[in-house]
Amino acid sequence: MLAAIESIPGIADLKSSREPGKPELQLIIDRQKAALYGLTPYQVGSALRTQIQGNAVSTFRLAGREYDILLRLPEEQRNELLDILGITINSPAGPVPLKNLVSVRTGTGPIEIERKNNQRVVKITARNVGVSSGQLATRIARALKPIPVPPGFDIRLSGSYEEMTSTFRDFALVLVIAIILVFVVMASQFESLRDPFIIMFTLPFALIGVLWALFLTRTPISVISLLGVLILVGIVVNNGIVYIDYTNQLRRKHGFTLIEAVKEAGRVRLRPILMTSLTTIFGMLPLAFQIGEGSELWSPLGRAIVGGMVVSTFLPLVFIPVLYTIFELRSERRRQQKGESG
Question: What GO MF annotations does this protein's record show (predicted)?
Answer without folding.
Answer: xenobiotic transmembrane transporter activity
